[in-house]
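Work Package 3 (structural annotation) set out to generate three-dimensional models for the target panel prioritized at the project kickoff. During this period the team completed the workflow that converts sequence records into discrete structure tokens, so that structures can be stored uniformly alongside our sequence database. As a representative example, we reproduce one entry of 130 residues exactly as it appears in the project archive.
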Amino acid sequence: MKTIQFNCPNCQQHFEAGEATAAQPVLCPNCQTTFLSPTSLPPSVWATPAGDAQKKASEAAEALERTSQTALWTARFIFAAGVLIGAALFQNGEEGRAVSIFSGAVALAVMFGFSARLAGIHAAILRLRK
């Protein structure tokens, strides 16, 4: 079996591995950098420090967190608007329409709240992957 020799792109720690490990993730025990083991391509193509991936994951997590907060505020607004409109309709004797408006507002608020929770969970997962 042919062996592949390569270095960590961050600290230059030397590695030697079997050809079967080509293009597989490697964790450098010296500096904790994660990178892909080489294939037949030159090192400049395959050796990418995990820092770039971590930066992208962090940016994605921050964007998801903003999305989560926006969805939560949207849910609160829809619910409050539904309650106010439903109360006004109820006072005017339009109980049927009031219940419809209130039910729709609750359904939309739950949907946006659920979306916010999912975005928040996804952001947390991305942060854990760092």
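The first helix runs from residue 43 to 46.
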